[in-house]
Design brief:
This protein has three domains: 31-38 and 52-301, Polyphosphate kinase middle domain (polyphosphate kinase like, 2-Layer Sandwich), CATH 3.30.1840.10; 321-495, Endonuclease, Chain A; 503-685, Endonuclease Chain A (Endonuclease, Chain A, 2-Layer Sandwich). The chain is built from 18 helices and 28 strands.
Amino acid sequence: MENRYFERDISWLSFNYRVLMEADDDTLPLYERINFMAIYSSNLEEFYKIRVADHRSIATGATHSDDESVQAAVDLVDSINTEVTRQLEERIRIYEQKLLPELRRNHIVFYQDLRMETLFHREFVEQFFLEEVFPFLQPVPVTRDKVRSFLRDNRLYLAVRMRPKDAPAPMEYFVMKQPYSKVPRFIELPRVKDDYYLMYIDDIIKANLSVVFPGYEIDSCYCIKISRDADILIDDAANTTEIIEMVKSKVKKRKIGVVCRFVFDRAMPSDFLDFLIDAFRIDRHELVPGDKHLNLEDLRLLPNPNPHLSPMPKPQPMKLTCLDEGQSMFNYIRQRDLLLHYPYHSFDHFIHFLYEAVHDAETREIMVTQYRVAENSAVINSLIAAAQNGKRVTVFVELKARFDEENNLATAEMMKAAGINIIYSIPKLKVHAKVALVLRRTDDRHKLRGYACISTGNFNEKTATLYADATLFTCSRLLVNDLHTLFRTLQGKQNPEFHKLLVAGFNLIPKLNALIDVEIELAKRGKKGRIILKMNALQDHAMIDRLYEASEAGVQIDLIVRGICCLVPGQSFSRNIRVTRIVDTFLEHTRIWYFGNGGRPKLFLGSPDWMRRNLYRRIEAVTPIFDPELRKELIDMLNIQLADRRKACFVDSRQQNCWKSEHPQKEEVRAQYTFYEYLKEKNETNHDQGNRIKSNAISITG
């Protein structure tokens, strides 16, 4: 029987492996590749702390799930660890056989062991250790019968085995936490001629263990670390006040969560490992072998001492010529809809939008959702300034945004103190919609005109430089009214009715089903049915089944899914479905949906992926695109992404990332850079955006 669904977490590992493939790409600048190695490692750490921790909790009987049995959880954790171990072999190959030699070719020598090429360097390392490292080391003895050291989450420890020099005695064991807050992970050694030298702090400590343990003969030393459950489960029945208190309480306990992974240097002898397992009460299902150096997410901090190793030039955010600082964004949006693409367009335009609302005498009210709040945010500062200028400001802050709970709560309290009306998390739901609304008085003093903003990404100036997102600004009365209804719903309005805006939990799924039905009916009548869906993740089995149904009816379907994709391509029921995955300079984050509609395409833009949580347990907002010029712009974007032969892979029936072009050429389409040039040309040649350039992309009906 053909498998109808990929397992969600194994699919995610396929995505993360695609990230690792960027570190293997010889065409990228060296430090760009090193950064992808760091991203891969960071992604994996979070995956274990959240997803694997959940399965481990079920596997041990600590929690119950209606969706997963104890045995299924055990089997899945084993499958995850097997795949991660397989990927480790590739990571080691890329790191040791490609990245390190490439660093050396560029005169950056990484001492990987304790043998240093010059006496000068040995003397420097000894002196550095004595002055900068030794004072912060605190060795703790470890015995099987008594655990004297609590291993903190994601901290690196050195496990040391030794025996006294002068008397026969059994082996003794110690652990030492690396002083990460006192000393950098990477130490720059003195330069010799044209060569620069680097060394892990781990290796500097290992080279000087005799200083730490005088009178002992060091047998061996290996790096270990613990990953702990970092998920925060908030009682669904809790009210807003209880949610706040739960967040404050549970965030403090995150660092002492249940162990979900014990990572160790795979060169460690089995008897050494067995001792640590017994001493720290480690379950063998939690064992994940690693390399000599753990926490390679730290590679993002790797010094670049060679001035000739310049980073790859990246697309720089452009400001639209039609929105120069002297022009009112309100006037522009009142005349036509505006679509911004971050990070290709400058996020300053959104700040300008808020700034204008702050200082505009006609502005009466500003409403915004905040899911992940940037630190020292210009967005938040603008909202505070608006409240201080006498505007009514309402901000919905989602306190259950994972890993941002503390920052969101602190920011919310600061805004509340400034006079902003804060709406906190809704019990049983996360609010994931990214929307803003400004209400201004019109010439008719008794009426207000709304300016709506609907986005695929957070209103966050930091992520707007890293994530590829899109934001629609519109004065459409229907969308403005629907958005106003949504904000009233967040404040407790019951039984809302939405006319054009699609909102998860209300009208989103019925509308999606209706749109798919149209394409199925077209295909059954011998006409062209066409669907293109761009999103971060596709998991919901009910919606996957609808896509299978459409495929079997003859609808041609292209999925551009960056991360999790539980749909299985290449089967009899999915023969008309292709899955594309793009990983490049920016994180693909835009959600755009295209339905051919018999030659009169319908396009939608919004915040949700097709995950069960997004479709059923969150408030999400999706807008139709009414402006035909903007519809064309999004179609051109999708065309460019489907035409990518540099950074796009097909995902096959075995979840492998298969390059669309086996030997990609520089002249081939690289979607992010091609689309940037598309937008740049449009911006340079059409100051009033009245005439749109024609796309050179392939036909979307192909």
